[in-house]
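Our consortium's second objective concerns turning raw sequence data into structural hypotheses that experimental partners can test. To show how far this objective has progressed, the report includes one record in full. It was chosen at random from the queue rather than selected for favorable results. The single chain below, 452 residues long, was entered without modification.
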Amino acid sequence: MCPDSGEDTPTEAVTLEQALALAVGWQREGRLDAAEPVYRQILAVLPDQPDALHFLGLLEFQRGHEDAALEWLARAVAVAPGHAGLRSNHGNVLQTLGRLDEAEREYRAALAAEPALVAAWNNLGVVLHAAGRRHEAIEAYRHALELEASSAADHHRLATLLERCHEYEAAAVHHRAALALDPQHLGATRALGHALSRLGRLDEAAAAYRAWLALEPGHPLAELRLAACGGAPAPARCSDAVVRGLFDQYAGHFDAHLRGTLDYHAPERLADALALVLDAPAAALDVLDAGCGTGLCGPLLRPYARQLSGVDLSPKMLEQAAALALYDALETAELCAWLNAHPGAFDLLVAADTLCYFGPLADFAAAAAAALRPGGWLAFTLETHTEALDHRLNACGRYSHAPAYPLRVLAGAGFGQLRSQPVVLRRERGAPVEGLVVLARRPAAPGYACAD
């Protein structure tokens, strides 16, 4: 056989094995035009040569020719069903195309042929995780690490999934294992503190966050979490960068997570409270959804609204809200600054699960009072604690408040008709998250009728 794929290609006869080795080497270097003719020459002579079929399929996939790739790979599998590497690579292509059930079948076939194939165990874990079968994915990743525990990335992958299953002790072990192999592993450095804080090991968590800051000085989330562990003074509120980054990442699955996992009902609790003080919905009010996120409050506020506006720090969350077609205006901005720039603009201001990113509330209360018209209502939720502290930054990175504190601040900002009601805002790890629904009214101007 005489492969002819360029001036540096040997012209003397070579064996099948040598030709395949040349072509595979070129393919790995990205020289697809050199490799492809070799595979096709082999197949012209030996149409069922499994390696040529296999690597030509992968080459077609590299070119973006998905149908051709799958056709060549299927032919290879038909010829060599017990070829573990082939079945694993076929699974990789199917996984990339989102055909998870078929990819799982191929990985399991690879492992039946070669139970110690580490890549197949890892890729099976990826597919199982993507399919929502987290505990099966964990077992697949553990099999891979039992066979070969030298990859920091593999330890980190398992640790991340263990955290999502609330197995924080095991997660911390694998984050530490990743860092032992690669002390500069950024993912493990970032994540270790979170696992430790969940375990209540705050001194260790603070040390982990300091290590993160050593790698990424000034990182806003690392600074917040260090403060949340008691390793630095707590800021007055979460920074714009933290909130924006968190919720831009969260936007695509925010609603499903809150509703499906956390049993989140703060919007409904606010709507119930507002129904007791507002007239029947008549589309007559200018309403602001403050920290509107993806718009979970929108359907509940729209019936009251002549004009429904939303403001949020996260552009990605606002994209989700815009898709609802409920809001007349949506803006990306920091809340207090935006309120101060819109004096006397609203009859109703609602903030669901927004003030858990604020410690002191005086600035918010003053800005809300300025943005409301005389007689306008303010309604919001807070997470609460029982300690003798007005506000506290918790290890999770959110603030909670003493139940009496918001009423005192609102009174100081000139609000009246103060009301608060204890509620369960959501559930985390099966436990209720206690909070308040708070209502307050800006006093009416002289001569303005203000019915309770």
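The partners drew two points from this record. DSSP finds 21 helices and nine strands in the chain. Confidence is low (pLDDT under 50) at residues 4-10, 447-452. Both points have been shared with the crystallography group to help prioritize constructs.
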